[in-house]
Amino acid sequence: MAQSRTGPRGTDRGIPEATVARLPVYLRALVGMSEGAAGTVSSDALAVASGVNSAKVRKDLSHLGSYGTRGVGYDVQYLIYQISRELGLTQDWAVAIVGLGNLGHALANYGGFVDRGFRIAALVDTDRARVGEKVAGVVVSHLDDLDRLVAERAISIGVIATPAHAAQDVCDRLVVAGVTSVLNFAPVVLSVPDGVDLRKVDLSIELQILSFHEQRKSVVTDLGDRAAAGAPR
Amino acid sequence: MAQSRTGPRGTDRGIPEATVARLPVYLRALVGMSEGAAGTVSSDALAVASGVNSAKVRKDLSHLGSYGTRGVGYDVQYLIYQISRELGLTQDWAVAIVGLGNLGHALANYGGFVDRGFRIAALVDTDRARVGEKVAGVVVSHLDDLDRLVAERAISIGVIATPAHAAQDVCDRLVVAGVTSVLNFAPVVLSVPDGVDLRKVDLSIELQILSFHEQRKSVVTDLGDRAAAGAPR
DNA sequence: TTGTGTGAACAACTTCACAGCT
DNA sequence: AGCTGTGAAGTTGTTCACACAA
User: Fold this and answer.
1) In whole angstroms, what is the distance from residue B170 CA to residue A109 CA?
2) Is A70:A42 a contact under the CB 8 Å cutoff?
3) Strand C closer than 7 Å to the CB of B68?
4) Does pLDDT of B154 surpass 90?
5) pLDDT bucket at A35, cuts 50 / 70 / 90
6) Does residue B112 approach strand D to less than 7 Å at its CB?
């Protein structure tokens, strides 16, 4: 996971990482509700819509401030605004996607991208044959132009969708160019200097975690379990 | 997130979730090393290659058993075997991918898939025009045939790469068909019955988390007084 | 010496349960 | 009466530091 944020000095006025990771889920649920006719939500209703329990919702939201009303709940629109602001979604973020294989294409065409505050400002590849081509309405540039692109288009977030062997080099170039947040899809451990945030999404790891639990299911759970723990197979 | 471990509450012979999530990372690093000429690794070397600290490596590996040698380290091949076994990768898992848009295609063509123990046993879509077409060497089937496919091909893992609005229905069908592990890429909260494991990968959430930290960087790090004085409004 | 394995301290996160506001 | 906000208790995960084996 990314390094822990915590400001350089002084008391940590920060929101817990676990909470930050759930705010986007709440936000999505709230936006869904706001399209209906819901003026307010209770922590309970929001919890159900978000797949967590209500105590967690209340604790999480309490980190943003006291935005609820006792006996009533939270104002949907106001909460949407507060969460958006906290997540930095009231401004636009320029994103560069590097690597335009299958995954890069999928990401470029991913709707939820532009959805909230994220704008694909550059598509980058090393394949000269692809440069100039348009994907999702954006012209593909060459990796060698990265410095210029990042500077000119104020890109602060880089998405790596290259093969594993190219990922660290691409990451280094992104950082040198001035990108300060990196989302890595390549199945490799990357390192970045302090001050740069790094997150990863790894399909293979997710599958292996499922495999672990799946295996546990078929193994008959210990001896003498009543009624033959009917493992459906 | 996925529900906590299924199965009866006995003595917890289990490995902590946090450890399970790191085992695939260690495994990848080890496989990389085994291609070189490394007979053994220290927890320190493995830690560096995995992007964690060595205490964590030792604690994690200790959950598998005492497979290291004091003063020496861990035998690479043996560790690979033990981790693979623990993760259930010594057997093959049949996977179905549902939804063959950009993302589904990307997943189907993703190399690391077949990599370790995972086999694409079915590709499924609702678009009749796509049915019959071959993607990544596998013929696309229709969603209506899911029950048969899951049964005939002993599929236990389902990957959802559909639009959000279709995801819960697809998930329900997968579960009814007999799938017991689901990996969801659709940006929506799914619910599954007990006994079914659910994990999600959500690009939009990852970006929003980066956005949160990115925003914090630009904010001058010392406006911590604001909320400190009583009633925030 | 070197580097594992682990009890113990520490830190983060979750859940409980209820006081207090509306 | 209903629902938030939050101390306190409980749980899980991380790091320390050192005994001990090779």
Assistant:
1) 22
2) no
3) yes
4) yes
5) confident
6) no
